[in-house]
Write a structure and sequence with these properties.
Two copies of one chain form a homodimer. Chain A is α/β, with parallel strands linked by helices and 426 residues long. Chain A has 14 helices and 15 strands. Chain A folds into three domains: 84 residues, Winged helix-like DNA-binding domain superfamily/Winged helix DNA-binding domain (Arc Repressor Mutant, subunit A), CATH 1.10.10.10; 142 residues, 2-Layer Sandwich (Nucleotidyltransferase, domain 5); 160 residues, 2-Layer Sandwich (Nucleotidyltransferase, domain 5), CATH 3.30.420.40. In chain A, a hairpin with a 4-residue loop joins strand 7 and strand 8. Chains A and B meet through strand 12 and helix 11 of A and strand 12 and helix 11 of B. Chains A, B: This is Transcriptional regulator/sugar kinase.
């Protein structure tokens, strides 16, 4: 589900660069990640297969697999299968009983949490409708902390181990620190989200990862596509339509988010030179004219459920409001496709629900404005995850921390067990 | 100058997959490219250094270096230098006396040719002002063929060998065939450029490579930055401002041109919902409002030289016309930076000449509209090559064909010598 890139190391490699007592541990840590990556990439693989894939000896692989099985990161399937001429081995895969990632999404008008297992199955999902605008950031952080505590309690009740926490925010995130530089639709500037949550939730398990919601949503969509179909496009733009509009760019199977991780900001695409003022300070931004609030207002609808009822009933004002948003979105996306020559667009968030009314006017704009569309038509598809994508991406980002460094996760669990805190978090 | 990525092969590697008499040649061909790449990447390297870098034996490296020196691809410098403790070796670098790439650019209002040596030095450059609009494609191809013949004759007079030909066109190019799918500003659709030129110039030397002018310009700019300075940005957008507007996106030191090579089409960015109709069929495209013709027309200038005189004289209409284009261009580029989080913009083509008047309004728009600009300001720089970038990129693309497969180049030269055509083309 989560792609990790690691290279084989032997003791010698490390001893050359970092001599001393730490080396032995560094080697094990690296090789442990390598073995787990091999299992994640080829579910059902045998120990011999892992050895062949990683270049490690079978003895080393066996020791590390045992360690990963004991920690419930890897599952060993009882039934034997033929792994090559004359040889048999048990098949290994990521364990559905292993740790969960806890994701939380700070939406403009909701808070969502999700507990997701290593193999991508959702164990718990919770959405609280609440308007986070015009609210001091400290207040919103208290709400988020309460949601996290609630999810951790539910995890404990279900006997689930939480391996780490991921947070999705609709703003620019400074990568290593987890500081939110700006989130215009929340009215946030320079908020130390990581520190705030660590204060609000004592004993947060594992790593705390903060990311941009649109980028996390795109990664979740990519994971879902990979699990669900063989013919998923390797490159696409995932558009998260909420009150704000964000995008996540996937190039050749990996998220592209630019030099500072600020990439994918589609919401402030200029569509009207003299349009209304946006929360970002500029005028005529796409999200002010084609975002969820703009559509609801033009359609005279109270919320998205009401809008969809009106659309289902064929109410002309509602249909016209969505079609107009589709044309504006299509115009902006035509510029994106002309620039990046990307073969597919995935409509996510609220746009996934509006897809039946949005897709045609959007596609018409692409056909008209994309230079290469006559030879290579752009595919417009509906997100499989819809509004759930970002919170699932947040949960997956927490799991990625475990998957890229399983040894540290295992060591921290052992320490917790030793000090009497127990393996299950809460 | 040109970056090549090749991996070491030994005879065994190839014999496994392609048994038979061809293998020996395939191995040599691959290793020859590998050695040349090592010399290109580390000018001044010794034979021992090449062996260490490539993993080939010193004996193999020596044989291949001798072959490359004989073909004037590599220069061996007489003076000895210390390459390691107790060892001495001659220093190897790409030969300035080696083959030239012949580049030709088909501009909307000019045809340019350039002969460029392996180390990037320009041996001959020629620009013919001629309007190629409203002219049958076959007529334009005849003009291009005449320019190519002229350049080949000049090369012969100067004793230069031409290793291949690169063509830059302002349109979408189908990558392997060299067919131009569409070039709106030339009025071209589905033109088999490669076939047309091979018919128009008998005995065209080496490979014929066709590419998009804006993408080739960006690559030339990248090469020039690498030669000229240590602190060149690894990622940037190069904007080619001519009658049309194109862009080339460089990410982490390599051109990014999308799934089909159609990327970088910035000219048809929608800037006015009810703007004038563009040659592409849509309305309100950036190049119709901020391209060279639009600026000249607003400024009341006859051509770019006239415009620059008026700007130098501080003529208000001229300054206002350029500033207005700068704001529109800045608005479009803000969307590009918000999307890609790219740290630098390079203004090329005519925009390089207009830089002193264009940069400020453009930068002001970026500061206002780019979400992350407060934390990471976007650098706006002037192209070092200006209007010459695309034709130089075309010449470099022809050289790349030689550099990635030197053995085939050497074999074709030997064949030519044998049949009495001679090593110099013409």
């Amino acid at each position: 589900m989560v792609k990790i890139f690691v290279h084989p190391l032997n003791e010698y490699d490390v001893l050359v660069t970092t001599p001393g007592p730490a080396s032995q541990h560094t080697v094990r840590r690296h090789n442990c990640a390598l073995v787990l990556d091999a299992v994640a990439a080829t579910p059902g693989v045998s120990r011999a297969g892992v050895a062949a894939r990683t270049g490690l000896t079978k003895a080393t692989v066996s020791t590390l697999v045992d360690r990963l099985v004991t920690a419930s990161l890897v599952r060993e399937e009882g039934r034997q299968h033929r792994s090559g001429p004359g040889r048999r081995g048990t098949s290994l895969s990521l364990s559905p009983d292993g740790p969960c990632g806890l994701g939380v999404e700070i939406g403009v008008d909701y808070l969502a949490t999700c507990l997701m297992g290593l193999t991508g199955e959702v164990r718990d999902e919770h959405v609280r409708r609440i308007d986070n605008r015009d609210t001091p950031a400290s207040r919103v952080l208290s709400r988020v902390a309460a949601e996290l505590r609630g999810a951790l309690q539910r995890a404990e009740r279900e006997g689930l181990t939480v391996g780490g926490v991921g947070v999705a925010v609709p703003g620019l995130v400074e990568a290593p620190s987890g500081r939110v530089l700006v989130a215009p639709n929340l009215g946030w500037e320079n908020i130390d989200l990581a520190a705030g949550l660590r204060t609000g939730v004592l004993d947060l398990p594992g790593e705390l990862v903060v990311g941009n919601e649109a980028n996390l949503a795109a990664v979740a969509e990519l994971d879902a596509m990979r699990r669900g179909e063989e013919t998923a496009p390797a490159s696409f733009v995932h558009v998260s339509g909420e009150i704000g509009i964000g995008a996540g760019i996937v190039l050749d199977g990996a998220l592209f988010d630019g030099a500072n991780g600020f990439g994918g900001e589609l919401g402030h695409f200029p569509v009207r030179p003299r349009g209304p003022r946006c929360s970002c300070g500029a005028v005529g931004c796409l999200e002010r004219l084609a975002g969820q609030d703009a559509i609801l207002s033009s359609a005279g609808a109270d919320d998205v459920d009401d809008l969809v009822s009106r659309l289902d009933a064929g109410e002309r004002t509602a249909v016209a409001a969505v079609r107009s948003a589709g044309r504006l979105l299509g115009s902006a996306l035509s510029a994106v496709v002309n620039l990046l020559d990307i073969p597919a667009i995935v409509l996510g968030g609220t746009y996934a629900r509006l897809y039946p009314w949005l897709a045609d006017p959007l596609s018409a704009e692409l056909s008209c404005r994309v230079m290469g569309s006559r030879w290579r038509p752009v595919e417009v598809r509906r997100s499989a995850l819809g509004a759930d994508a970002a919170v699932r991406g947040a949960a997956a980002s927490a799991l990625r921390a475990v998957l890229t460094d399983p040894d540290t996760y295992i060591a921290s669990r052992t320490a917790r067990s030793g000090s009497g805190i127990g393996a299950t978090s809460g």
